[in-house]
Amino acid sequence: MIIGVPKEIKNNENRVALTPAGAKELVKRGHSVYVQHTAGEGSGFQDEEYEAAGASILPTIEATYAAAEMIMKVKEPIEPEYKLIKEDQLLFTYFHFASYEPLTKAMVESKSICLAYETVEKADRSLPLLVPMSEVAGRMAVQKGANYLEKPLQGKGILLGGVPGVLPAKVLILGGGIVGTQAAWMAAGLGADVTIMDVSLPRMRYLADVMPANVKTMMSNEFNVRKMITNHDLIIGAVLIPGAKAPHLITRDMLKEMQPGTVLVDVAVDQGGCIETCKPTTHQDPTYIIDDVVHYCVANMPGAVPYTSTLALTNATLPYAIQLADKGWKKAAQNNPELVPGLNIINGDIVYQAVAEAFDMDYTPVVKYLAD
């Protein structure tokens, strides 16, 4: 198969979908890998390293899309890329369709095959290609939140871990999944007073067992959320419903109940956000303020640490990419049920129900395409 790796063109996105080591593994199996010129530079990988691994360098994004049967990306295609996508071309990347209708319609019109990293799912319901970036984003959420609590950045002027004789900051984490767990470990390690809220008692029992003493658990419901937001300094939104829009756990009216300088970090922003006042921001302009509450809503947080993120992502995606390249998307999905929920759009049909429901569009069961 011919695999194309274009340079990411989303604002301040420095990750790349494939490392030179990953390219070498694909080339070893007889596949052709085309990497756009300087695609890996932001992550610390030079064109020469890809060439040494057996890949070929193409000068432009247009040439990369034109050559490839499978496109490997990190972030969803943005508008300048829509016209480059061909019918029957396989796109393997993060899409988060349910949060952006124009992208969904563009991919339907392209008649391409869209296989989303974020909905590839194991039998135990875990999301293996979302986990590495969730780990990065969860840890970064605390770093960024701690930074924006500083007074020059319009936060409360609180040091996250406090000092002897001064209480530490209070951190509230909404969601006890991968993002929430990683955020809790990070905040606890810095000495903060941490509370994780979730709707699953089994998950909270697990977290109560493994977390240090400065992390507490609490059932998530509107009453408890309203109570907790009044005296917490950093609030991290870490809610995920695979393939669907995140629910709003913090609504517009709740901001008035928060103390001035409270910092909100919504890691769920690329799925619509679990904070109603959330809107996607960029690393270039990451925050805005509503009702004296600081909002940090960068939609590609791991893009700020591209070396770590690219290695972590390729570690997870490469085994699936090899299956797709070796067998083609249809046979790979027939042989590996983990790939089946990753299929979101096929030849103009939406085959992931939550995406169709998000925009009241027609849904086609994926079995139509996988039946022999």
TrEMBL record:
Domain Alanine dehydrogenase/pyridine nucleotide transhydrogenase N-terminal: 4-137
Enzyme Commission no: 1.4.1.1
Signal peptide: none
Residues forming coiled coils: none
Domain of life: Bacteria
A Pfam family this chain is assigned to: AlaDh_PNT_C
Single GO molecular function: alanine dehydrogenase activity
InterPro entries: Ala_DH (IPR008141), Ala_DH/PNT_CS2 (IPR008143), AlaDH/PNT_CS1 (IPR008142), AlaDH/PNT_N (IPR007886), AlaDH/PNT_NAD(H)-bd (IPR007698), NAD(P)-bd_dom_sf (IPR036291)
Annotated Alanine dehydrogenase/pyridine nucleotide transhydrogenase NAD(H)-binding domain residues: 149-297
Keywords, ordered alphabetically: NAD, Oxidoreductase
Catalytic reaction equation(s): L-alanine + NAD(+) + H2O = pyruvate + NH4(+) + NADH + H(+)
PANTHER family noted in UniProt: ALANINE DEHYDROGENASE
Annotated family: Belongs to the AlaDH/PNT family.
Protein name, as recorded: Alanine dehydrogenase
Organism for this UniProt entry: Algoriphagus halophytocola
